[in-house]
Amino acid sequence: MASTIFDKIWQNHVIEGNEGEPQLLYVDLHLVHEVTSPQAFEGLRENNRKVRRPDKTFATVDHNVPTNPSPVDSIENIHDKISRLQVETLQNNCQEFGIKMAGIGAKDQGIVHVIGPQLGLSQPGKIIVCGDSHTSTHGGLGAIAFGIGTSEVEHVLATQTIWQMKPKNMGIKIQGKLAKGVSSKDIIMHLIAKYGANFGVGYALEFYGDTIEDLSQEARMTITNMAIEGGAKVGIIKPDEKTFEYVAGRKYAPEDMDAAIAYWSQLYTDSEEAFDKIITVDATQLEPYVSWGTNPAMAVSFSEKLPKITDSNIKQAYEYMGLEPGIKVENIPVEWIFIGSCTNGRLEDLKKAAEVIKGHKLAPNVTGWVVPGSRSVKTQAEKLGLDKIFIDAGCEWRDPGCSACLAMNPDKIPAGIHCASTTNRNFEGRQGANARTHLASPAMVAAAGINGHFVDIRKIS
Amino acid sequence: MDPITVHTGRTVALMNDNIDTDQIIPKQFLKNILKTGYANSLFFDWRYDDAGKPNKDFELNKPERQGASILITGSNFGCGSSREHAAWALKDWGFRVIIAGGYSDIFYMNCTKNGILPVVLPQNARDYLAKIASQEEITIDLPNQEVCCGKEKYHFDFDQTWKQKFINGDDDIDITMAYQQQIEEYEQKLPVFWQ
Ligand code: SF4
């Protein structure tokens, strides 16, 4: 019987149980951050349990870390006492249980989904979990990667395994060349806008087709990152030469790369018959997307008008966003831009935004924040002089972290402000109380910053 | 985990679709390092106005809905962030059962770990349940997989393994510890480059 890449990796990890019932799976990599882990470690202590495989566990701090333009290189820089306690708690837990950690100021520190791939910890064929829904990101390297809750974090710490029900397989076939300026962010935003915020519930999504093959390794991760916004815990892309090359030479890459590549090369979907469902996308027709409402499905392509009010969800979204049906996204006044997050905070994303912004200034009423996804991304970007481009345009060049993607640190978008954002969620209050988020690609966000409203990136690139 | 077999209680309805965990519990309450103390933070931005006063129109604030233990809601409930704080906050407020059109996968798992029964019913059934009076009680019978409300009865599907777990109130880690030997054997078979 034909299998998908997802079926193959899953089957390789089953310790107990049959399909159709919860199965016990082995976890190859467990990433940990400060927000969803304290109660899990406490649970271990209460029950006198150890971490089964500290060597397969890696921790960092990202959600709570302030990203002031001046370096945030020690815990002393966290002025919010409760945030600081959470970060300290993780430090102490990692020490007590023998877990490697990239703490504040460390050169490997960054957003957990940026550093996993960057350090070579995330690899094809692994099962990767983390107490964070955007763990789906790592599926861009051909792994099964998904977010879990804190009780599950505790379970993985104690047993290095997890009980899961196998989801079904959905193939998303994407073919054709993208128009210049249209990016992988637009592919995933299109899918969610067209099929809804829950089209992927109960499925693992595999993205394939020549459009996907042409994408860089980093661009692929933007797609799998937002699989969760379509309701799918897992998004996966077949690993290929680009992937192997991406992993090779990284800090925690396998020593025996030949053996690893031989193993990884067996990870592919046998035939389309293996999918329970297939969606096709003609990439040549895709336009840039911008979200107008309060969930990622409330988004339109550049040439569309904002939809009519047909239910109370849409009505509530318009009220919150201070917008009206019938206008176009170019009519939305943009007062803030945010470039960063695990969706679009990698080096390539910063390069794309910098290309657009180079030689321009932010529009007079616009504030701009650029937050690299990790310290290493920051250093690399500075080597390329990207920091200067952003600063010259009038943006703040900040330290790595989640920052205003979720605003649980001091970085918040003020109430009522329309913020063009390279992040993944436009929920009410996500970027700050009453802040109004518009999701878009790095190039679209950069262009909105210099114009004070959204513009069609295809016309300027 | 507290077991659930048959639960009888009063209801409150929030019928929006796609209620995300950022709404169920906003991020400022995720800094806590405990599992309890979240009841007042539940649906914070909807429950309180900008000045911090309770919003009288919000269902959870209505005096006649206090003490409700069953939440009736829309589809794709609990989407977005994986924060288990959402389940803890619902539990802390007193909810033991949720009746939705569907759930995000991660939130569903978090319910199974915290003794909150996630029931799925179609729109017409939920529309009916959403209208029942505040003092009226309904019963969720897990062994028979039925929601009973006066003369009305609605069947719901439920995975048999999770069902046993709810009925017994089992601890997952204890269960898994019994597989120690299989886990060790599995680890020995890992490819050398992943040992
Ligand atoms: S960058 Fe945003 S979405 Fe990504 S892990 Fe941080 S808070 Fe979550």
From TrEMBL, chain A:
Gene Ontology biological-process entries: L-leucine biosynthetic process
Cofactor descriptive note: Binds 1 [4Fe-4S] cluster per subunit.
Cofactor or coenzyme needed: [4Fe-4S] cluster
A molecular-function term among this protein's GO annotations: aconitate hydratase activity
Record field: catalytic activity: (2R,3S)-3-isopropylmalate = (2S)-2-isopropylmalate; citrate = D-threo-isocitrate
Protein's name according to its UniProt entry: 3-isopropylmalate dehydratase large subunit
Top-level class of the enzyme under EC nomenclature: lyase
Keyword Metal-binding: yes
Keywords annotated in UniProt: 4Fe-4S, Amino-acid biosynthesis, Branched-chain amino acid biosynthesis, Iron, Iron-sulfur, Leucine biosynthesis, Lyase, Metal-binding
Record text on subunit structure and interactions: Heterodimer of LeuC and LeuD.
EC code: 4.2.1.33
Primary gene name: leuC
Binding-site list for [4Fe-4S] cluster: 342, 402, 405
Family: Belongs to the aconitase/IPM isomerase family. LeuC type 1 subfamily.
Role this protein plays: Catalyzes the isomerization between 2-isopropylmalate and 3-isopropylmalate, via the formation of 2-isopropylmaleate.
Stretches assigned to coiled coil: none
InterPro entries, A to Z: 3-IsopropMal_deHydase_lsu, Acnase/IPM_dHydase_lsu_aba_1/3, Acoase/IPM_deHydtase_lsu_aba, Aconitase_4Fe-4S_BS, Aconitase_4Fe-4S_dom, IPM_dehydratase_rel_enz, IPMI_cat
All copies of domain Aconitase/3-isopropylmalate dehydratase large subunit alpha/beta/alpha, residue ranges: 7-452
Superkingdom, natural source: Bacteria
Pathway listed: Amino-acid biosynthesis; L-leucine biosynthesis; L-leucine from 3-methyl-2-oxobutanoate: step 2/4
From TrEMBL, chain B:
Aconitase A/isopropylmalate dehydratase small subunit swivel domain segment(s): 4-123
Pfam families recorded: Aconitase_C
Presence of the UniProt keyword Cell inner membrane in the record: no
GO molecular function: 3-isopropylmalate dehydratase activity
Keywords: Amino-acid biosynthesis, Branched-chain amino acid biosynthesis, Leucine biosynthesis, Lyase
One GO CC annotation: 3-isopropylmalate dehydratase complex
Catalytic activity from the UniProt record: (2R,3S)-3-isopropylmalate = (2S)-2-isopropylmalate
Pathway recorded for this protein: Amino-acid biosynthesis; L-leucine biosynthesis; L-leucine from 3-methyl-2-oxobutanoate: step 2/4
EC number: 4.2.1.33
Biological-process GO terms, alphabetical: L-leucine biosynthetic process
NCBIfam families named among the record's database cross-references: leuD, PRK01641.1
Family statement drawn from the similarity comment of this UniProt entry: Belongs to the LeuD family. LeuD type 1 subfamily.
Cited function: Catalyzes the isomerization between 2-isopropylmalate and 3-isopropylmalate, via the formation of 2-isopropylmaleate.
Quaternary context: Heterodimer of LeuC and LeuD.
Protein name, UniProt field: 3-isopropylmalate dehydratase small subunit
Gene name, Swiss-Prot/TrEMBL: leuD
